[in-house]
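Sequence in, structure out.
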Amino acid sequence: MNHFTYAFGLRIDRTHLLVLAAAFFVVLILGCTPSGVRTLPISTKLQNADNVFDEAETMEVRNEDPKKMEKNRIKQQELYNKAMTLYVEVIERDTKRKYAQRAHYQIAKIYKRRYDWDKATEHYQAIVALDPTGYYAKEAKGGIANIRKQHEVIKAKRAEYQNYKTIYDSSATDETFDIAAEALYEVARAYENLENYTEAIRNYERFVEEFPKHSKAPQAQFQVGSVYFYTLYDYLGGWPAYVGVTEKFPDSHEARQARTLLKQTADTLQEISELKDEIDKYRNKKAVEYRKTGRKITPADMWVMGFSDQVVQNFQQIASNWRKLRNYPRAINAYKTLARDLSHKKFAAADALFRSGELFQQNGDYERAIEAYDALFENAPESVWRNEAVYQQAVCYRSIREFGAAYEGFKAYMSITKGDTPYLREAEQIVRQYELDQDQDGYKFYEEQEAGTSDQDANSHPGMGS
C-alpha cells in the first residue's frame, strides 16, 4: 500500500489523501466552511441585509388597535435588529472594506431611526477610519456635522425660547412674542433636520398651541402632517394633523392645500387597496399552497390563467400611486415584487427593474441603483431601457467616486448608442475629460480622481505609494 510520510512521522494512506483533497476542493468550489455550512458571498449577504432593512422600512406600524400597533412596532424593531446583525457579519468578513463601509452606513441609519445619535456617530467615524477620502466618508462626515449642528441649534434656540417665553408671559410685547415663537419654530425644524421626527412633531404642535396667532402657526400645523405623510409614511397619524389645519386655520393658504391633499391622498390610497385586492383575487390558490409545501412553482403558474397582464397593470399602477404619494420605499417594493413574481412577463419585468433603479438613484442610494441596473442587464439584456440604464449606472458610479467604472460605463453607452440621443453628447464630454492627462504623468484624469490625486501636479499621482 502506498503512503505519504509527513513531519512528526504521520503517515496518510493515498486513498485518504485523495478524499481529503476532494473535500477541500468542494469547500473551495461551494464556499462552505469545514463544518459543511455554506458561506454566502459578502455581496449576497449585504443584499440580504438590505432586503430585511427594506422590509422594516415598508412595514405598516400604525393601527387603530393599540395592541396590534405595539405588536407591529416590536416586529419592526426585530427586523431592524436582524438587518443590523447581517450588516455586522458583512463588516466582520469584508477584509477589503468595500462592503463594510455601506454596512456601517446602514447601521448608522438604523440607530438614527432609534434616535441614538452616539451610536450613529460611532459608525460614521468607523467609515471615515476605513477610507477617509471615499464617497461614504464624505456622507459620514456630513452626517456627523449635521448631528452636531442640529444639537447646537436645539440647545441654543430652546434656551432662547424658554427665556423669552418667560419674559412674554410676565410682560407681553410683540417683540418678545416673535422672538419666543421663532425660537420654538427653529427648535422644531432642527429636530426635523436631525431626523428626530417624534420631537419635531411635538415641538410643531407646541408652537401651534402656544402661538396660534403667529403667522407661522398654519405652516407649523401643516408641517406636522407633512412629516407623518412624507417622512414616516404614516397616513393614519398625519390625517388629523392636516384636518387640524382646515379646522384651526380655515382661511389660510395651508388649509386650501390640506383640503386638496387629503382628497387626493384618500382617492389614491383607496385605489391602491382595490388594486391589491384584485391582485389577490387573481392569485392561483393551488399554486400558492404547492409552493408552501416546497414544490417549485413557476411565476406563470402563480396567477389565474389569462390574468397575468391585468396583474402587471395593477402592480404598475400601485407603484405609480406610491410615487404620487412620494412613498418611494413602497413604490420600489411594488416594482421589485412585479419583477420577481411576474418575471415571465419580460417587458414588464425589465421596466420594473429599471424603475426601481431610477428611484434608488433619485433617493441617492446609488449602490442599490447599480444593483438594480445590473439585474436589468442580466435578466433583460434586450430591454428598451438597456442603453439608458448603462448611462445612469455610469452616473451612479461617478456619484460614489468609482471613476474607473464610470469611465467604462460612459464609453459603453457611447458604443451602443446610435443617433442623437439625450445623453450622448454629455457622455462624450465626460469621456474626453476623463481621458485627459494634463500633468503628463501617465495617469488619466479619471485615474487621478479615483485615487484622490491631482491631474495638475506630476508629483501627485496614483503610483506615489507603490
